[in-house]
Write a structure and sequence with these properties.
Rossmann fold, 6-stranded mixed β-sheet, alpha/beta, 4-stranded antiparallel β-sheet, globular
Length: 280
Amino acid sequence: MNNESRADFSVTGRDSGTCIVCPEHGLPILLFKKNGYSISRCDRCGVIMSGGQFVPDQYEDKDYYTMSRSSVEALYDQWAFRWRWILGSIASVRPGNSLLDVGAGNGLFVKIAREEFGYDAEGIEFSQVQCEFAERVLGQRLLNASLSEIDREFHIVTCFNVIEHVFDPLQMAREIAAHVRRGGLAIVTTPNPDCIKARVKGLARWNMISPPHHLNIFSREALELTLRHAGLNPTRYATLSTYINALVRFRGGRELPRRIAFKALKLFGLGADHFVVAEK
């Protein structure tokens, strides 16, 4: 395929083929087609776009990956390493006690933030099925709502692997910023197209490019620019690979292989996800 072809989003839903981060960047370059969508990349900031529309029903599937493990022990095995690392990494710059997790999924992050780190933590999740799962399995109540329905500010707003799912990520970043107190933090993670898996497989075969599930994939530059446009100042960046499937069984005193892999990928910026801390 000619890499200089310009993307046409007329079939997949976006009215214009401009960059979603900054329209002044101009027309994106068509990379390939996947799942019937035209996958393109802005040659200025590197954001990868599908032009797809949001499909809410997919998040009500009881087999959705956040609910693939049905016991408390299995959920901690899969997720707790990630959430404890993130919470521990911001402990020294904790601007206050209130925390809102946007797109809280199975609720384990909120539970750990409350019970192990002492936050006054709440979670919102628009999927009714995931809210029911969180309460049934973990005893963690989540608010079944969208961010626009929340009318107060928090010291910390977290948004883990959500922004890639939305049609208008800049609007979402602005809503996040509007809910962060002055001097507070926004913490965002999203898939990293420079991760080792994407480099080995190639973008066309990388499973994170998966419209209409993931609509947009961000380079580091595109993600940080989006946050700046929303009024947030990125101050810390790393990459994370915290649920490495081959190593997820290691826990307790046997966690060393997972930690080694995590640190090595983080050192070279090859982790599966971007991790950005931004101040308001």
